[in-house]
Structure prediction request, 589 residues.
Amino acid sequence: MDVQAWTYLIVGITFALYIGIAIWSRAGSTKEFYVAGAGVPPLANGMATAADWMSAASFISMAGLISFMGYDGSIYLMGWTGGYVLLALLLAPYLRKFGKFTVPDFVGDRYYSNAARTVAVICAIFVSFTYVAGQMRGVGVVFSRFLEVPINVGILIGMGIVFFYAVLGGMKGITYTQVAQYCVLIFAYMVPAIFIALQMTGTPIPQIGFGSEVVDGSGYILDKLDGLHEQLGFAAYTDGSKPMIDVFFITFALMVGTAGLPHVIVRFFTVPKVRDARVSAGWALVFIALLYTTAPAVATFARYNLINTVSDTQYSELPSWFKTWEGTGLIAWADKNEDGAVQYVNGKAFAGKPAFTDGTGAQGQRLISNELTDNENELYIDRDIMVLANPEIAELPAWVIALVAAGGLAAALSTAAGLLLVISTSVAHDLIKKQFNPDISEKSEVTIARISVAVAIMIAGYFGINPPGFVAQVVAFAFGLAASSFFPVIILGIFYKRMNKEGAIAGMLAGIIFTAAYIIYFKFVNPAANVSENWLFGISPEGIGTLGMLINFAVSLVVSKITPAPPEDIQELVDSLRYPKGAGEASAH
Prediction:
């Protein structure tokens, strides 16, 4: 069978599995819809958390970023992995002991204020929609290549699948679907990595392989890649080019953003006991580490193979995968010097992304002829394709290529479902039930939650069709927004009993408004100004969430000091959160 037939088979089987699980585990109550009945075993919750957290950015885009950025791409590895450790140690057990359905629920009760709850709801929805845009983009990229349908059609198919199991199953359905999706995505990520590690270095362990010699004995793969980069005018793959302050701020924004992501935090409300929250956090870290320690190897193999395959090769002699990916518009070539060979050197090939209508080189060349830049680079590569194209570049079997497609879809859909549930619970539970209609019946609340999911899916689909950036970049913005809004208010709510509602509201608003304004200005209002000379203190939009977080902390503490202290019962509640007594009996509210 060819790649497309294998893709239809494997993707079809996985989709049938997800739908079957959703039917089997459909939610019948608000507790099942919001927190899976708080009865998920720690091991299963660890897998679900890993799938929820390892999005299309982790599966599709992270290795692509490292492929292009080299050493500088390590910010994503350090930030996202370190952030999960921060979440597991500082937040998860205490939030689970508090026993609420959502982050806005915690904020509303801890800060004894519906106004604080409303601000938290707005922040949760804003962060979630920013994040989900990257997931829908990832779904479209996978479908456009492997099922050979337009990106927009692929997004619509993904929307339909998520709609089915998120609306029907709620958190219960999503949790057990995510267990299956983790198994699919990690198998899909590791199998080609092991194949290519064996092929290139003779070792079956990718983590060791990317630091080893190539099989022909001509040198270490990283040394050879540095040499290729320097020949083509790129910075050495193992050297960094970002200012250290920006590296620090981006890494820290990703760390604290991870610890503030509402769709990850809610996973710790789904286990029976506080101790189970800690255990499931440990399992999740193990499951996440499998992919994250493999990503640098995948990035290195993909970059090395790509340069060796296409650079200075006659277009007529390029392998079939190149021309297939041309059909998606995610890779393109323009023969600037008319020698028939692909010149891949440092610099942009085109002023903007090429607008391909089919996969022929001539068609693409006509469409982009007015957008050529003056440098010698003739090749445009969308960094989101590196993981997906890697097995084809390495000439692996068709079933492995199809498996990667299924894994990419599993990663994107699992995270999208978790984010959409956060949006629906924020609307149905935190707004409707807690503020507008406290006497609403359980059946009506679940109905509103399901309607909210449906509306959120449609909005998410729009963002997928009109994405504000490539997958990992969009997700980095979401982490910055989460860092600047949720992290300070949660940390201070747990560890500082003098923190009051006025401080929380002022801090959240100051942090997220500053961060969002900075990102919107440089990315959408005046993108031409998005260079380090114009950045505040040399901090890029991807790292500004750290500064937004510091502003949030400062505003929160100052306002809390000059306004009345919280009620005595709230201060006692904060003290009780940190005491182990009775922790084992805590249950979700």
Notes: The chain has one domain: 3-26+36-302+397-585. The mean pLDDT is 78. Strands lie at 331-333, 379-381.
